[in-house]
Specification:
alpha+beta; Alpha-Beta Plaits; 4-stranded antiparallel beta sheet; 34% strand
């Protein structure tokens, strides 16, 4: 069953976050992900959101593939680069 990883990202240190981005470039796709959306919130229409917060949506064929991506050693090592550079929330959504 297809699923999505939906990440919201508040970047605190753009330079350090860029190093993280470079470290994971193409990694999700190597686990079968299809990039759906990547962009900044331009306007909060309802609720307590943050203008400028980035949203990233990736589609995976299965939750197992999505979890394998997040549990990979490459991703785990990249997470270390991201520490203190951004506040990130990742959600797994089954379709």
């Amino acid at each position: 069953m297809a699923c999505f990883i939906v990440a919201t990202v508040q970047i605190l240190d753009p330079e350090r976050f860029a190093a993280y981005g470079s470290a994971i470039k193409g990694l999700a796709e190597s686990f079968g992900a299809e990039p759906i959306l990547k962009g900044a919130v331009s306007e909060v229409l309802e609720g307590a959101g943050v203008v400028g917060e980035r949203v990233v949506v990736s589609r995976f064929e299965s939750a197992e593939q999505a979890r394998a991506y997040l549990q990979s050693s490459t991703y785990r090592n990249a997470q270390l680069l991201r520490e203190g550079a951004a506040n990130v929330v990742m959600r797994l959504i089954n379709q």
